[in-house]
Amino acid sequence: MIKEHIKRKFIITTFALIIFLVTMSFPSIEEEIKNVTISYTNGDTSPIYLLDGNSYVARTSMVLAQESTLDMAKEIIAILTIGSKNSTYIPNFFEPIIPKDTKILSIDLQDKTLKINFSNEFLKIPNGLEEKMIECLTFSLTEIKGINGIMLFVDGKTLEKIPNKDAPLPPILTRNIGVNKVYNLNSLKNVSKTTIYYMAKEQDTTYYVPVTLLDNNEKSKIEVIIERLKSMPIQKTNLMSYLNASTELTNYEILEQEVLLSFSPLLYEGLASNEILEEVKYSISLSIKDTLNIDKVVFIEN
User: Fold this and answer.
1) Residue 39 domain-assigned (yes or no)
2) For site-directed labelling of 298, which of 14, 86, 106, 173 has its Cα 20 to 30 A away?
3) What 3-state DSSP class applies to 253?
4) Structural domain of 252
5) What does each of the 302 residues of the chain score in pLDDT, given as a tens digit?
6) Is residue 85 part of a domain?
7) Do 49 and 166 lie in a common domain?
8) 111: left (phi over 0), alpha (psi -120 to 50) or beta
9) Nearest to 57 by CA among 247, 209, 205
10) Are residue 207 and residue 130 in the same domain, yes or no?
11) 253 in a domain, yes or no?
């Protein structure tokens, strides 16, 4: 009996010693934590314009890791480039557009104008996508604070024409070039240019699609925006607007960098409260901001 007790005690002691030695061979939890390197991004989202499934230049947003103006511009260009590591983070239903293997040879920011010198691969854009590539670049990069326009170069030479086309490009590209352009002209005189943000939906994803209308409308651009958002969007598309068709714009005032809007009570028809649908606010605000180049849109109730 005593022998059995001694034998059992010896076995327990031996196992305890083995466990102690094994434990000592691993670093402690505290030591492991000290050796872990954690990196953070700024977490800010930036609007970016990509191709959607219907080949529209569409507005979505992505988190950018960079913070300086030039680094943000480089990151956005990488996102827009087919086959780049950054393009793999693009949300579903959107596609990059800059040709694969396109490189930035140099990039510089002067007086709020971003000068980008691309490699020759930039010109290998497929037919039919040339203007859309220019629009994606211009609208994405001018969303960055401090960039009002861009200048494009290829192998050191100014890009004076749209690739594969004879259509000339302005020396400095701004949002004034328009996007997803629709022409409704009966004359080349007194052409009005208005950018209107419609909504599109793919499965559970809702996003905005800007359409620049070129016509001879003599109404104010704010009136044109409201009128268009109230009516049926472009035929045979998935574009839509939630602005009540019976809504009336009762008054508006254009200040230096601000627009004040007043609507009839029908703006709230069918809503549980006197709060305008976020989709309606965004569509109107984005449209007016892009068309009039202003900073703020204020909705005045009652």
Assistant:
1) no
2) 173
3) strand
4) 182-300
5) 444 544 455 555 555 555 555 455 444 434 443 444 333 444 568 899 999 999 999 999 999 988 899 999 999 999 999 999 998 889 888 999 999 999 999 999 999 999 999 999 999 999 999 999 999 999 999 999 999 999 999 999 999 999 988 899 999 999 999 999 998 888 778 888 999 999 998 888 889 999 999 988 888 999 999 999 998 666 667 899 989 888 899 999 999 899 999 998 877 666 555 667 888 999 999 999 999 999 999 998 76
6) yes
7) yes
8) left
9) 209
10) no
11) yes
Same-domain status, 52 and 157? yes
- Asked if residue 249 lies in contact with residue 208, where contact means CB atoms within 8 angstroms, the answer is no
Verify that 108 and 231 share a domain, yes or no.
no
Residue 240: other Cβ atoms inside 10 A: 16
3-state secondary structure 264-297: CHHHHCCCCCCCCCHHHHHHHHHHHHHHHCCCEE
DSSP helix/strand/coil, 189: coil
In a shared domain, residues 55 and 172? yes
**Same domain as 161, residue 56:** yes
Q: What's the domain count of the chain? A: 3
Placement of tokens 């694969």 in the chain: 100
The Cα–Cα gap between 161 and 42 comes to: 37
CA atoms within 13 A on the CB side of 168: 3
The residue type found at 229 is L
Q: Which are the contacts of 63, defined by CB distance < 8 A and separation ≥ 6?
A: 41, 43, 44, 45, 46
State the residue for tokens 């497929």.
126
d(CA 195, CA 222): 10
Selection from 98, 104, 123, 107 nearest residue 48 by Cα: 98
Residue 127 lies in a domain: yes
